[in-house]
């Protein structure tokens, strides 16, 4: 599938709806001041492998941008010792922190630049978005969030982001069955012991069992307590899949947000329901696919690579 088709597919599936500029921008910004020399911009671009440097005033408000082509011009004219101010572009096309993914995409399509500064209402520079940031966001959406209705089938055909391995067998199988919180977490504790016997390193085992625990607890707390926890552990790779029969997650984008939870007060009093389970799974896994939908089963598949330690 080409990049354009992927973008169309994701747009169709509504998966961009919760991505805004602030969630995809990089916040490590290398900026210069107008009085800095053009030579400094050239050095910064080479050292940081970037193709444009935002220029800010004393309050970090965006006042200009200097691109590689401006550097090349300045080089040809022998103006490397001049101030950035004399060669920078002043009417910079920038994005706002709350701009939607659609706006960002159309900005890239329309202006054909490789990067855009992101500013807040008062003009303060808060980040940069490059075409690579956009591509990463697309790939993350493509692989991590799915809806479970016919739109998916129409758009993605038989494409499945889930591993095929589980169709035949699994190395570890545990049937989740908990009433209330009784037995909750037992499956992930067993998985941990199993992975240790397989000779996986301590750190990858910890990541896999913590994430398995979060997914298992979600089955116990949000999905009636019945489900399965399976794993395939071979060749330095651990694939964990946790499944249940519903009621499903209506909006996966929302569920992935830190602090978002539908847990009842009684559950919160027991110390659950901080809305941190799924965000932690995303953080600690190397690859994550969630398939769910309203009144649908939920499948959470996570991959952990020993080589990523
Ligand atoms: N297997 C599931 N079935 C149905 N809904 C789920 C499932 N897993 C997660 N959810 C929904 O996603 C929300 C977020 O899940 P997450 O694990 O991030 O937080 P939480 O379980 O509410 O709190 P915490 O994990 O911090 O105790 C849940 O509140 C619930 O609405
Ligand atoms: Mg949870």
Automatic annotation (TrEMBL):
Keyword Protein biosynthesis among record annotations: no
Annotated CBS domain residues: 25-83, 88-144
Alphabetized UniProt keyword annotations: CBS domain
Keyword Nucleus included in the entry's annotation: no
Pfam families with a match to the protein in the record: CBS, HATPase_c_2
PROSITE patterns, sorted: CBS (PS51371)
Coiled-coil region(s): none
Origin: domain of life: Bacteria
Family annotation (PANTHER family): CBS DOMAIN-CONTAINING PROTEIN, CBS DOMAIN-CONTAINING PROTEIN CBSX3, MITOCHONDRIAL
Protein known as: CBS domain-containing protein
Lineage of source species: Bacteria, Pseudomonadati, Caldisericota/Cryosericota group, Candidatus Cryosericota, Candidatus Cryosericia
């Amino acid at each position: 599938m080409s990049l354009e088709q992927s973008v169309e597919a994701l747009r169709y599936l509504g998966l961009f709806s919760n991505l805004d500029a602030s969630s995809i921008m990089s916040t490590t910004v290398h900026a210069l001041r107008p009085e800095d020399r053009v030579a400094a911009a050239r050095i910064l671009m080479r050292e940081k492998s970037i193709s444009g440097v935002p220029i800010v005033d004393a309050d970090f408000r965006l006042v200009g941008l200097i691109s590689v082509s401006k550097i090349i011009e300045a080089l040809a004219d022998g103006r490397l010792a001049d101030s950035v101010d004399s060669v920078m572009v002043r009417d910079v096309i920038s994005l706002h922190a709350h701009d939607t993914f659609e706006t960002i995409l159309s900005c890239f399509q329309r202006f054909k630049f490789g990067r855009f500064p992101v500013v807040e209402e008062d003009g303060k520079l808060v980040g940069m978005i490059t075409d690579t940031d956009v591509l990463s966001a697309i790939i993350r959406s493509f692989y991590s969030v799915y809806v479970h209705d016919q739109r998916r089938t129409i758009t993605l055909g038989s494409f499945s982001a889930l591993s095929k391995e589980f169709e035949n067998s699994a190395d570890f199988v545990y049937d989740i069955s908990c009433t209330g919180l009784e037995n909750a977490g037992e499956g992930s504790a067993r998985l941990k012991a199993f992975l240790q016997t397989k000779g996986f390193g301590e750190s990858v085992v910890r990541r896999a069992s913590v994430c398995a625990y979060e997914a298992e607890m979600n089955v116990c707390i949000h999905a009636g307590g019945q489900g399965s926890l399976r794993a395939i552990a071979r060749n330095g790779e651990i694939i964990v899949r946790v499944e249940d029969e519903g009621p499903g997650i209506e909006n996966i984008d929302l569920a992935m947000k830190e602090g978002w939870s539908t847990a009842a007060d009684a559950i919160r009093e027991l110390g659950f329901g901080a809305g941190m389970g799924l965000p932690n799974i995303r953080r600690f896994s190397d690859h994550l696919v969630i398939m769910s939908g309203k009144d649908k089963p939920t499948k959470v598949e996570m991959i952990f690579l020993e080589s990523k330690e």
